[in-house]
Each structure stands twice: as structure tokens, then as C-alpha cells.
What does this fold into?
Amino acid sequence: MKPRKMVVLATWCLEHLTFGSDSEALRGDLLEELRSGRSTGWFWREVLAAIGIGVGSGASIASQDCNRIPHKSPSAFAPYAAPHSP
It folds into this structure.
């Protein structure tokens, strides 16, 4: 794949797979660095790191949300359990 197409693909990934108000600024900063001489490999590494950080922080937020959900104790499900055979 040509370097230009690789940059377009990496930029698309960065645009569509990262979230938050800073993603546009991050994209601009990375493209500026690329234009100043950084390699395509460097650009991809930074894009993948940004996606990974976004996924990790999203999972952390989801985990915190799950901890706020009231959980029922196992005994609350006892009426629905299969009868025990003797």
C-alpha cells in the first residue's frame, strides 16, 4: 500500500475509532508532525496508541457504570432455580 493511502486509512481510523472532544485536535497535531518529517510508521503507531487509550478509558468508564448497577444476591434467584433431585 502506498504511504499516502496508509496515511488516509490511519486518519480515517483515528477519526472514527476515537472519541472525545480532543480527537480533532489530536488528529491535527499528528498530521502536523507527519508533515514536518515523521514517518508513516510513527504516524500509525501514534494512531493505534490513541485508539488503544480510547478503548481502555471507555472500558474503564463502562466498568464504573456496571458497579453502580444494583446487583441481586443469588438467593434472590432461588424461586427460579431448577429443583434439586434427591
The chain has three helices and no strands. The radius of gyration is 23 Å. The helical segments are 3-17, 23-35, 40-68.
